[in-house]
Please model this.
Amino acid sequence: MKLDQTLVDAAVELMNQRWPTGEPGGAAAVRLADGGILTSVGLDNMNGSVALCHETGAFIQAYTQDRTITASVCVCRDLERGRILILPPCGVCQERLALWGPSVEVAVPQEDDATRWEARTLAEVNPYYWGLQFAEGQWPSEAQHSK
Ligand SMILES: [Zn+2]
Model:
């Protein structure tokens, strides 16, 4: 299943539940191959080195349930300008998503409007994925990721 507005709305809904308007916050939602959606928020901590991205919980839920992620969205609230931004996955989350292959779709902001999303595959976001060097030029399989 592909990235769609329903997935973006799920992330926004969770963000609004967890952090009422007027507070900073964010959330993520992932689409599963079976059509399901998992959502999560990041773990904040005064020690920033132990904080987690909003996507992490949903990724771990999917992995725990042995379900396949096909799309991922992350959003955050821009308090200064009163808007919701689409956040592309950070480098670490791109690494985490690599487990599910190069065709996983992620939301990225439109070039002229950071509040609107476009879908890109993980391979498009990370065309020089390092793991290709260890899998004979192919995207590493889940089994190769699990070694
Ligand atoms: Zn991240």
The longest strand covers residues 69-78. The beta strands are 26-32, 37-40, 69-78, 83-86, 105-110, 113-121. The chain has one domain: 5-145.
